[in-house]
Structures are given as structure tokens and as C-alpha cells.
Design brief:
By secondary structure, this protein is of the alpha/beta class. The protein is built from two helices and seven strands. The radius of gyration is 16 Å and the shape is globular.
């Protein structure tokens, strides 16, 4: 039996109770909490959607995702303690198609690391034209669509990918 949806948004959680590791959660929405790591989440091997927007993750390693091979959508943007992310940490997520993230260190070789990635939602709001155009071109060359800050005028910045949300 699967638990289709677990929604614990805005609950000030700093951890999940790991007592029931047999819980087969498919969709976990834990936005706006105080989660600091992937404890228990890493055991949810049937997850297809994971939203950890606005938490307190400070470190992400590949071990966090070893069992999450079914994950297709993940949002980990707006982490208060996470400085930079290495795309290689996400290598186990071979089925990830949609990813919402900020503070990503590199956009090169994302297709090699995440072969099914088709949409990258970049939430960094302080980009200038040159940086946004550069990232857009890198992603377009890998056939990955991106969303970006709507405040950046794609025509003025000569960005070929249309903004979408």
C-alpha cells in the first residue's frame, strides 16, 4: 500500500519521525519547515515528487539520494543554510525530469548527470543579463528548458529561451 500524498507545509518541523520506515510515500510536500537533512526521506524509495522549499538544509551529499531513483520532481530552493550545490551530488536521480533549485555551482554537463532532466526552474532572483544569458545558452545546448527571473527582460538580454513558470 502507498501513501499517495504527505503534506506537512508550514509546520516548523526540524526532523521526521523515522519510526515507520516501511511508509511508502509517493509525494512529500514539506515546504517552509526547519529540516536540516534528508534523514528518513532518504529511505522513501517510492518518492516521485519531493518539495523541500524553504527549509534549513546545509549539506547535500549523493548518499541522500541513493534510494530515491523514482524521483521525477524535486524542489529544494530557498534553503537558508545551503551555500552552493554541486550537481554531482544529484547523480543518483537518473529519472529526475523537473528540478527547482538555486545556488547551483555549475550548469555544464547536467544532461550527463541527470539524463532525463527536461526543465530546470532556477529561482535565483539577482541575476544580471550576462549570467542569465550564459546559463540559458548552456542549458539550451543540452536541450534543457529553464525558467528564470521574470524581471530579466529576455529580449534586452538576448535570451533565446522564453520564460515560463
Amino acid at each position: 500500500p502507498f501513501t499517495e500524498y504527505v503534506m506537512v507545509n508550514d509546520n516548523h518541523l526540524n526532523k521526521f519521525n523515522c519510526a515507520n520506515k516501511s511508509l511508502n510515500v509517493k509525494n512529500l510536500y514539506a515546504k517552509n519547515n526547519s529540516l536540516t537533512n534528508f534523514a528518513c526521506i532518504r529511505e522513501m524509495a517510492n518518492l516521485t515528487n519531493l518539495d523541500l522549499t524553504m527549509n534549513s538544509l546545509s549539506k547535500i551529499t549523493p548518499k541522500a539520494f541513493l534510494k530515491l531513483t523514482k524521483l521525477r520532481f524535486m524542489s529544494i530552493n530557498n534553503q537558508t543554510k545551503l551555500l552552493k550545490l554541486s550537481p554531482k551530488a544529484f547523480a543518483p536521480l537518473k529519472n529526475l525530469t523537473n528540478w527547482q533549485v538555486d545556488r547551483l555551482r555549475s550548469y555544464k554537463n547536467l544532461r550527463e548527470i541527470l539524463p532525463k532532466l527536461s526543465i530546470l526552474f532556477l529561482t535565483t532572483a539577482t541575476w544580471n543579463c550576462n549570467h542569465t544569458k550564459n546559463v540559458s545558452d548552456i542549458l539550451a545546448s543540452q536541450k534543457i528548458r529553464m525558467s528564470y527571473n521574470n524581471y530579466v527582460d529576455r529580449y534586452v538580454c538576448n535570451i533565446t529561451q522564453p520564460a515560463f513558470t
